[in-house]
Amino acid sequence: MKKSFKTVALALAVILIATAVPFIPAKADTPGSTLEKIKQAEEEKKNTEKAKEEAEQKKQEKEGHVQDLNVKKGELKAKLNELNDEMTATAERLQTVEGLLAAKEEEIEITLVEIEDARATEEAQYEAMKKRFQASYEAPRDTYFMILLGSTSFGAFLNNTDYLRMLADYDNRMLDKYIEAKEEVIAREEVMEEEKAELEDLKAEIEEEEQRLTGLIDTANQYVAQYQAQINSANQEIDAYQKDIEAKEAEIKQKEADIAALWKQYEKELALSRAAQAAAWRDISQVTFEDGDRALLAAIIYCEAGAEPYEGQLAVGAVVINRVLSSKYPNTVSGVVYQPYQFSPAGSGRLALVLGQGNASASCYQAADQAMAGASNVGTCLYFRTPVEGMQGIRIGGHIFY
User: Fold this and answer.
1) How many C-beta atoms lie closer than 10 Å to residue 171's C-beta?
2) Residue 151's Cα: distance from chain center in Å?
3) Rg (CA), the chain
4) Which of 6, 215, 209, 253 is nearest to 89 (CA)?
5) Please, are residues 150 and 163 in contact by the beta-carbon 8 Å criterion?
């Protein structure tokens, strides 16, 4: 029970120590891994440039579409202006015709009054003649004869004869005049009614034309509104493309800055790698291993290559011991394993769990023992990682050592 408690306490302590180490990448930053980052960054930059070109092409296409829409909209608005001018002229014609029609109706009303007056005058004249004829018939038969006989001379006789004849002629002329005047007014009324009908027909034609123009104007306005809506929508897409292009440009500049920084890092790491290879190396006999180094080395081997064949496990152990032997790295197993930004399991807490639970396999312990005894199947390699295209090194299992 006490042993179990101590084991748990030890595991927790190791976890606390491990979590105090900053988080680090899966493998050490090496010239090879930095080259991979450069390659990845350049590929991302290339993809971003391609995406930017596509956005620019789409923007240009959309701008061309907007230009076409504006041309069509301009042509339609010009036609709409023509229709509005035509509508204005039609409205003026209609107003003129309506004025003429109103005047004609008023003229007809006046003519109708004149006709009634002419009829009344005709009837009055006719009644007067009837009365005169009736009076002449009802009077003594010798009335006209007596007028003639009463003449004092032959001249007077002739004058009285002319008077009677003129009186009859006057009645006939006046009656004919009134009849003629009435017929003339009636004829004028017929003409005016025909003119009124013609004006009404013309008004109906103008109103029909006005209705047709109204329909055309409404349709044209609808199309103008539709074109404007399409233009607004296209302009929004253009703005979105522009923002995307600007974002891509900023991203490309950042990628260029990142690539430049990675090249500087690569040169620095390459120099460190060359310095490490050229640095003084200790012999394995000069290394004093501490208590716990075996378990620590087996645990890191398990974390990095637990699923690899034994040769791969031994190679990882050899890299750790090669760093212990190099004057460019810490001279202890724990110093190498827990060196910041080198072995990711040390920073992620996984190494602490493996140590606390004792999960390292027997083959990992065997590899640790061989490596601590000076065995190496990768020579003086100081780095390992998953392979990348074009990278030189010793390929063992899923890792390349260099």
Assistant:
1) 17
2) 118
3) 61
4) 209
5) no
Question: Mind listing the pLDDT tens digit for each residue in 6-37?
Answer: 443 434 443 333 333 333 333 444 555 677 77
Rounded distance between C-alpha atoms, residue 389 and residue 374, angstroms: 31
Polymer length in residues for the chain: 402
Angle of CA points 330, 335, 341, to nearest 5°: 95
What are the two backbone dihedrals, phi and then psi, of residue 110, each rounded to the nearest 5 degrees?
Answer: -65, -40
- Of 73, 105, 377, nearest to 226 (Cα)? 73
Cα separation values, 25 from 36, 151, 298, 344, Å: 14, 160, 20, 5
Q: Which residue has the tokens 């509104």?
A: 225
Give the torsion through C-alpha atoms of 225, 230, 231, 234, to 10 deg: 160
Structure tokens that stand for 43 in this block: 């590929």
Domain 59-246 homologous superfamily, CATH: Methyl-accepting chemotaxis protein (1.10.287.950)
Architecture of domain 2-32+261-401: Orthogonal Bundle (1.10)
385: three-class secondary structure by DSSP: strand
Structural domain boundaries in the chain = 2-32+261-401, 59-246
CA 323/CA 248 separation, integer angstroms: 43
Are 175 and 125 a contacting pair, CB within 8 Å? yes
By DSSP bridging, strand 394-396 and strand 384-385 are unpaired
Give residue 128's Cα distance to chain centre.
94
Q: What is the value of pTM for the model shown? A: 0.48
**Distance between CA atoms of residues 253 and 249, nearest Å:** 6
Q: Where does residue 397 fall: left (phi above 0), alpha (psi -120 to 50 degrees), or beta otherwise?
A: left
C-alpha to C-alpha distance for 83 and 224, rounded to whole angstroms: 14
Give residue 270's pLDDT band: very low, low, confident or very high (50, 70, 90): low
Whether the CB-CB separation of 303 and 351 falls below 8 Å is answered with yes
Q: Tell me the range of 75-84, 274-283, 328-337 where mean pLDDT is highest.
A: 328-337
Q: 400 - beta bridge partners?
A: 385, 395
Report the candidate in 143, 147, 124 with the shortest Cα–Cα distance to residue 135: 143
